[in-house]
């Protein structure tokens, strides 16, 4: 069934139900930043593959909202389809509630699956629509009956992350949560986020092909910790260990009954941005809700000492693989047939040489020419660009090792570059260095830092719509809250603009420039917040760079760098060789020596 066919059957159902508009989020019941194929309703309907999207269908129109990362991609993937495209941060664009009010009559009804929308979002939407006498109803999986070849949810069993890798036992983590509950004067606590549950239990799964997570909930009461998950995925050995550690196992959907019964008369702590409207509806009237940032999220974002050491090791492992990939590309471009998709698969051969490699952590972004102007372009097998000896190749590759996760981007020279390309590369490098070397007072938010880094582009009357950095999880979501280095609000990371950075938080450092129809440049390392000093002016923090992979010397305009920037670059390359060379053979060492030569 094509796009028009899908629209037709949905609208026929709407007429039969007396529905004026259908709200279709690209979401799962846990408000995950990236969902498995089973939950990609927007992609099934429209073909838009961005990770953040919401689609609204009325009787005579359809519209899609996403963020600035995906504008060019949405225009490309929705070309020829009668779908209006809006960027959520555009002040001139209507939000989707305004759009609904303009496309259905007063007194009509809109529907949404309340398991796929957060309680915070649902409350906001319902209040706005009520002002126009429009009701919004719950309707379970409105389009599911038409999705005949819907990918199933994985049946992959859970596995345990050993304490040596997890760093802290689940019992110790549970006690840290209980301490937070006491601090918040909460009797109960509900965790819906998959990365929160996985982190606390030291369990991982396969419900998402790129993130080792599993559908689950946690309910803390004064006496018990309930883990709600698909019981068929929990092996007997893991079940016994959980029981020994004080956890009670229940089926996934038992969370609704437990929430209704176990919280009566209690103060229940939850994050309304991370808890579905349907789950909140299950709470009894005699309970009171204490709202705030998810407790586990606030703990796990500050990596333990063991996690920090492991993450440093993961970055070394990944940089060894990426150096081998870069060497392979440069030695074969123009000589052997290569394409974008193949490069994204090739890196796994190099990663697999390390026994602690777990799995890829993103659908590979490998792009040449104008494709690199799409920040989240993903090549498909049989439909990707050939690698020719011309210009830049950009790759953004993420990986999970048992010792932690990485997210690294390089833009490499594979052929002649124009002066404009070199200037743009150097400007991006300058922005990257500015974040790597930034010292800032405690209490500074990512919103402030994003502006500092982007000012390098602004001075040249340029900009990029993406954020400068995001939190990185530990064998969890690559995009982790609560903090991000961004200037744009996202309901998936609602506290990113207000929660300050703190010691132990892990971020990406990824400024870029994207020129539509021409090329793109992005340079990304992983950085960790460290203490700097305390003096009469207060407490100051800084970043530690964890990623050591050479930058493209041939793309750098040396004269554009300050003395301090050039000193940083040369020191970075010296350290890159020192760290990586023991892991390489003689030929690879010689190659790396050349790539990291002093400028």
Automatic annotation (TrEMBL):
Gene3D superfamilies found in the cross-reference section: Creatinase/methionine aminopeptidase superfamily (3.90.230.10), Creatinase/prolidase N-terminal domain (3.40.350.10)
Signal peptide: none
MF annotations from Gene Ontology: hydrolase activity; metal ion binding
Keyword terms: Hydrolase, Membrane, Metal-binding, Transmembrane, Transmembrane helix
Domain Peptidase M24: 310-531
Residue runs in coiled coils: none
Record has Transmembrane helix as a keyword: yes
Keyword Transferase in annotation: no
GO CC annotation terms, alphabetical: cytoplasm
Record-annotated Creatinase N-terminal domain positions: 10-133
Entry superkingdom: Bacteria
Transmembrane region(s): 431-453
Residue ranges of every copy of the Peptidase M24 C-terminal domain listed in the record: 540-598
Record-linked InterPro entries: Creatin/AminoP/Spt16_N (IPR029149), Creatinase/aminopeptidase-like (IPR036005), Creatinase_N (IPR000587), Pept_M24 (IPR000994), Peptidase_M24_C (IPR032416), X-Pro_aminopeptidase_P (IPR050422)
One Pfam family in the UniProt entry: Creatinase_N_2
Protein name stated in the entry: M24 family metallopeptidase
Source organism (scientific name): Cloacibacillus evryensis
């Amino acid at each position: 069934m094509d796009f028009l066919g899908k629209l037709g059957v949905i609208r026929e159902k709407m007429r039969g139900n007396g529905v004026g508009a259908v709200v279709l989020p690209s979401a799962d019941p846990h408000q995950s930043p990236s969902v498995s194929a089973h939950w990609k309703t927007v992609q099934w309907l429209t073909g838009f593959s961005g990770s953040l999207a919401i689609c609204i269908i009325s009787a005579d129109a359809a519209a899609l909202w996403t963020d600035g990362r995906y504008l060019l991609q949405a225009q490309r993937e929705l070309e020829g389809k009668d779908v209006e495209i809006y960027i959520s941060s555009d002040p001139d664009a209507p939000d989707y509630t305004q759009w609904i009010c303009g496309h259905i009559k007063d007194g009509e009804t809109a529907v949404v699956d309340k398991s796929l929308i957060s309680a915070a979002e649902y409350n906001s939407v319902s209040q706005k629509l009520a002002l126009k006498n429009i009701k919004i109803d719950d309707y379970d999986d409105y389009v599911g009956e038409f999705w005949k070849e819907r990918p199933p949810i994985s049946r992959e069993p859970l596995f345990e992350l050993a304490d040596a890798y997890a760093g802290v036992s689940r019992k110790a983590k549970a006690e840290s949560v209980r301490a937070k509950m006491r601090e918040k004067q909460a009797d109960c606590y509900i965790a819906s986020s998959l990365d929160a549950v996985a982190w606390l239990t030291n369990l991982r799964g396969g419900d998402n092909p790129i993130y080792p997570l599993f559908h689950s909930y946690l309910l803390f009461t004064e006496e018990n910790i309930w883990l709600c998950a698909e019981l068929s995925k929990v092996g007997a050995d893991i079940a016994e260990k959980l029981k020994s550690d004080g956890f009670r196992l229940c089926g996934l959907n038992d969370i609704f009954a437990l929430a209704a019964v176990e919280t009566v008369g209690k103060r229940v702590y939850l994050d309304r941005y991370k808890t579905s409207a349907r789950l909140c509806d299950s709470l009894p009237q005699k309970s009171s809700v204490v709202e705030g940032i998810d407790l586990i999220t606030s703990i796990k974002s500050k990596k333990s000492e063991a996690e920090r050491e492991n993450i440093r090791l993961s970055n070394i492992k990944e940089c060894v693989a990426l150096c081998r990939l870069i060497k392979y590309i440069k030695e074969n471009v123009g000589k052997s047939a290569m394409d974008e998709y193949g490069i994204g698969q090739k890196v796994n051969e190099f990663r697999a040489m390390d026994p602690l490699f777990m799995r890829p952590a993103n659908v590979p972004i490998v792009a040449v020419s104008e494709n690199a102007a799409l920040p989240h372009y993903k090549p498909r097998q049989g439909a990707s660009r050939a690698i020719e000896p011309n210009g830049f190749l950009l790759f953004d590759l993420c990986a999970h090792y048992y010792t932690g996760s990485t997210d690294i981007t390089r833009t490499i020279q594979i052929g002649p570059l124009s002066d404009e390309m070199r200037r743009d590369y150097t400007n991006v490098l300058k922005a990257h260095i500015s974040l790597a070397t930034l010292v800032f007072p405690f209490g500074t938010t990512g919103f402030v830092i994003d502006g500092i880094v982007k000012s390098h582009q602004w001075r040249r009357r340029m900009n990029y719509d993406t954020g400068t950095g995001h939190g990185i999880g530990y064998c969890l979501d690559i995009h982790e809250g609560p903090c991000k280095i961004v200037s744009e609000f996202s309901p998936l990371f609602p506290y990113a603009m207000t929660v300050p950075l703190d010691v132990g938080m892990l971020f990406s450092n990824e400024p870029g420039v994207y020129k539509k129809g021409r090329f793109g440049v992005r340079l990304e390392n992983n950085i960790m917040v460290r203490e700097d000093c305390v003096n009469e002016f207060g407490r100051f923090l800084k970043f530690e760079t964890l990623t050591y992979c050479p930058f493209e010397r041939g793309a750098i305009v040396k004269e554009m760098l300050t003395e301090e920037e050039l000193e940083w670059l040369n020191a970075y390359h010296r350290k890159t060789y020192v760290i990586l060379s023991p892991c390489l053979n003689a030929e690879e060492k010689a190659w790396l020596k050349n790539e990291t030569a002093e400028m």
